[in-house]
Amino acid sequence: MDNKMPNQVGWGERVAYAMSDFGCNTIFQIVGTYFLVFCTDTLGVAAAAVTGLFAITAIIDSIDGVIWGQFIDRTHTKWGKSRPYWLWFAIPFAVFCVMAFTAPPLSETGKVVWIYIAYIGAKVLYSGINIPVTSILPALTSNPQERVTLSTVRQFFGNMGAAIFLPLTLPAVGLIAGIFDKGAKDPPTSATGWFIWAVILGVITAACLLVAFAGTRERVVTKDSNRAVPMRESVKALKGNYPWAIIIFINFIYWGGFAVRSSSLPYYFKYVLHNEALGSLVLAGTVITLASTAMVPFVARRLGKRNTMLLGMVGTALSQLVLYLADIMNGNVAIILTGIVLYFISYGLTGALIAVMLSDAVDFGEWKNGVRAEGFVTSFSSFSAKLGMGIGGMVLADVLAAGGYAASSDGTQTASALNAIRMGFIWIPFIGYAASAVALLFNNIDKLEPKMVADLTAKHEREAAEVADAEA
Hints:
Blueprint: H1 11-41, H2 47-74, H3 84-99, H4 108-135, H5 137-140, H6 144-180, H7 191-215, H8 231-234, H9 242-272, H10 276-284, H11 286-294, H12 296-303, H13 305-328, H14 333-369, H15 374-402, H16 415-440, H17 445-471
Helix pairs in contact: 1-4, 1-6, 1-7, 1-9, 2-4, 2-15, 3-4, 3-7, 4-15, 6-7, 6-10, 6-11, 6-12, 6-14, 9-10, 9-14, 9-15, 9-16, 11-14, 12-13, 13-14, 13-16, 14-15, 14-17, 15-16
């Protein structure tokens, strides 16, 4: 691999690019972690009623990502193909996320309709602002090592957003409730507290996405950059593109397990361990991910991208077994914290490289099939991740309903409900993480990369010369 290619991207632009993920995670991690518990414990909606929402969302997720990808490939503006979506949809996305944590004075049926509109709108618009985060990466630089650096900085800031705001959420909701909703019996479930906190996060999210728009530039120009790539050509980029197929499967199964774990975490610490404060401390452990994410470029240089990502996936699977050990030891706090630390270290090694390997799949599609379709190829990342998270949420809601879960202000649940919560927090994520590690073993893109990069660099230079001659 030629690591001496020009960097092409300065630190100001790296940080601006990273603000896209910081903005996304500022509020959408809160949606992923607390939306279900907000519906059941604040709105008073039955878990079974939310199951249908997750099922419908999973269906929508199966098509909206591809549609957004086609929009991107057909976009041709002075700002490029991907950047404009942060400008156009930053504020609408933030509004729908705030709606997801709003408790309108409606009947139970009205509340169900409300959360359907809010959650589906937030998920669809999340694709609109998140797919460009991945699709723009191949256009920011053609240097493979710089892509790792960019993705690592982006993931670092994304994890930082989660590290800051996830552990702050319940205390912040309770604090806000203490000021503006003093009659709340259980401050962390206060509708007023949730709404004001969501507004604060929504403002931060929109501002970050606008900074990302203003501070980045699409500089890798090919013959496909200045034209709308039709669907029939975009599909050709997937022909024989096995690196793409593998990473899309991983995206589905890994993030499905992640969603189940995140959504069941508040239930586990509230009802199984009766220690919500420890749950907030565990969420604060996201800061550990910052350190492991920062190490990704250095580890990847030595082990390669695939093996670095594999190390992270194996670690996340093992962390779930450590949590099981703690569970059978009556919630041993020291072992729980050990499992959590292992999880966050391993997660940091994984998240940053998914976008890089999708960029490799874009290059592979152009190398093998002559078609560069960043939007279409990378849109399946959002599709598969959201489909996995949607199905994961549906599975968790079904498991809780089957276990007889019902919101309880005194922190008690039946034995079957507690076992359902354990299944969601420990075993379903373990299956997702382990299956992802097995799938990744079949990806050998690191071995192909030197020749692929050299061939594409020569191709892009020829195309640039042809464009210059045509304009002369």
